[in-house]
Amino acid sequence: MDSRAANKKAIESLIKCGAFESTGASRKGMLEVMEQAQSSGQKLQQDAQMGQGSIFDLAGEGDQKVSMPFGIEEQRPPIPAEEFQQSELLVLEKETLGLYLSSHPLKQVAGALRQRVDCTLSELNQKPDGAWVTVGGLIVESKKIRTKKGNQMMFATLDDLESQVEILVFSNAYEENAEQIANDQIVVVRGRIDHKEDGETKIVVQQVDPFEPTDEELAAAEFGWLSTSSSLS
Question: How many distinct helices (H) and strands (E) make up the chain?
């Protein structure tokens, strides 16, 4: 295609979000050879403009099969088969689309995360005001601000696939916890429930820890889910 119709940034974004999945090539491999592939395409276009053949002459009439012009197959760089990890693919999708497309970071660890928390976020409104809870989920938004007294604090939104809650990190807990709160990070939060007068529930943070389950925890959670499913059936 004409390189003026889609620049390097556009093609890179299309690869990252999975728009070329139908080719069967890996996203990591396509990104590795993208510059070489673009150079080859530009060379073909230049040759066509100089009368050395046209890449648009490839189309045949009817069902007639037309072979590739000499040299085109040779100019195609081989695409490495190695692919990104699933977690890396999700990051690329979020980066380019603003959302996770092929899966969600919490799906693979939801069972293990449930074993570390007191309740889901949707159950917080059933807890009394001021109660201490341990909850977990994905940080989807975060914002640091400075108070009128000059102290740092943070607002963040925690999501566990069932619901969301705003967490507040005041100055007394900011220094120890701010680095743990970053967008797209899975965390376990310990804090106090704050039911506002308008009915909105928030959590005042005491401690935030990154959620990094072991293989044993993941396997145990998966086994527990399978056992529950079997007993229900």
Answer: 7, 5
What stretch of H or E contains 89?
A: helix 86-97
Would you give the end-to-end CA distance of the chain in angstroms? 54
H or E element at residue 140: strand 132-146
Distance CA 144, CA 155 (A): 6
Residue for token digits 């592939």? Answer: 37
Tens digits of residue pLDDT in 193-214: 999 866 789 999 999 999 998 8
Fold of 110-216: OB fold (Dihydrolipoamide Acetyltransferase, E2P) (2.40.50)
Q: Which burial class, exposed, middle or buried, applies to 92 when counting CB atoms under 10 A from its CB (0-12, 13-18, 19+)?
A: buried
Query: Could you tell me the residue ranges of all domains in the chain?
Result: 8-97, 110-216
